[in-house]
Amino acid sequence: RRRLQEEGCLFLALRRLPEWDETPAGRRQKLGGFPPEEVDRLAGELRPDLLLVEADGSRHRPFKAPASHEPPIPAGTTLVLVLAGLSVLGRPLEEAWVHRPERVAELAGVPLGTTVDAALVAAVLAHPEGGGKGVPSGARVAAVLTQATPERLPEGRRTARRLLRAGVERVLLVDLEAPERVEVWPGEGIRRGGPAGGVYAVCLAAGEARRMGQNKLLLPLAGRALLSYAVDAALGSRAEEVWVVLGAEAEALRDALGTRPVGFLRNERWAEGQAASIQTAVRALGERAGALLFLAGDMPGVRPAHLDRLIERFEAGAAVVWSEGDGRRGIPALFARETFPALLQLAGDCGGRALAGRFREVSVRASTGELLDVDTPEDYLEAQRWLELGTAWSSSKGAATWGAG
């Protein structure tokens, strides 16, 4: 204890093991830890401000499931951190990327070789025999998703949302190469004017959308429904919650989104135009939200990074933030809480553009491909080429103003 007071920090191990480990920092001799009951005894004797225990390892793989004898968590533990590296996303469920892939497959209910995605990672980390295994009564649980580089952040955020829905109290997205960049989910919210806090993304999908002979939001695009692209962009953004406004063919659209961690709002007046969908969202979410970020369900090119830029301009003080492309402003667009009474006065199909010039507003540039909507069979074919073949998406009609209600 005296040495702890002198040094301020101690690294303790019971013994050196005969095995050596190849680590990113070089070859190191493995160390044997203390039994859990011994850790509790040391905590009582040393009374440190913080006692950090590595309960088990993953053999340098980014993802794992515990073995039958793991994890050896001391009974006095107050906070358990369950870790996964985001580099596993998109990789096959096999030994090269996952420690004990057979056990992961069993917990997630998927076959070996399955592509690891956000749903699989969240399912195992939140499973009582996965990340929740051996957690002492009364201890809190938080998930730490490492390797959260800028290009991996959208998938990391989708994973975080699923973990929160599964009951994990807190999720941290970290990049150890840039330790100053940490995201905490749920965040503290954007505090503007009273208790209302975060930005809530709202995907408008209530209209009949039958210009193409059927509900275009259900059209398959690269193996999934057109609607799913805008929803996934919102899930990958900094928006605290993601909601979808449904009306016509509500059940089919809900089914098309599968198990995505989104909320649903029902617009019974969907035939009256887009204003009714906007008002449905304002009435349901307005008391809690600091701002609403509206997306159209028929815009598959929208990217999470663009939505994040809209949120950043709101944080800087704008009350209305438009997307701009080809000299036109429109959706995705963000509206701060102070605009909600005006949104409730909208009528018909005019959408939020009726508020132009009435509040502190700015525009955020986006590429044309991000803002184009699918309105015609020609648009649909162009979107297919864009997504499947990587061709540029261009259109003579320019950026969308407001899309599918």
User: What is the fold-level CATH name, i.e. the topology of the largest domain?
Assistant: Spore Coat Polysaccharide Biosynthesis Protein SpsA, Chain A
Q: What percent of residues are in strands?
A: 15-25%
Largest sheet: 7 strands, mixed
Strand order across the largest sheet = 13-12-9-14-16-15-17
User: What sequence of helices (H) and strands (E) makes up the elements?
Assistant: HEEHEEEHHEHEEEEEHEHEHEHEEHEHH
Total number of helices: 12
Overview of this protein structure:
- The protein folds into two domains: 184 residues, no CATH class; 191 residues, Spore Coat Polysaccharide Biosynthesis Protein SpsA, Chain A (Alpha-Beta Complex).
- The strands form five sheets. A seven-stranded mixed sheet has the order 13-12-9-14-16-15-17, sandwiched between helices.
- About 2% of the residues have low confidence.
- It has 405 residues and is α/β, with parallel strands linked by helices.
- 27% of the residues lie in helices and 22% in strands.
- The chain is built from twelve helices and 17 strands.
- It is elongated.
- Helix 4 packs parallel to helix 5.
- Strand 1 and strand 2 form a beta hairpin.
Set down the secondary structure blueprint.
Layout: H1 2-7, E1 15-23, E2 26-32, H2 36-46, E3 63-64, E4 79-85, E5 98-99, H3 101-108, H4 118-126, E6 140-146, H5 153-165, E7 170-174, E8 182-185, E9 199-205, E10 220-221, E11 224-225, H6 227-235, E12 241-246, H7 250-256, E13 263-266, H8 274-285, E14 291-296, H9 304-315, E15 320-325, E16 328-336, H10 340-343, E17 361-365, H11 368-371, H12 377-389
Parallel strand pairs: 3-5, 4-6, 6-7, 9-12, 9-14, 12-13, 15-17
Antiparallel strand pairs: 1-2, 7-8, 10-11, 14-16, 15-16
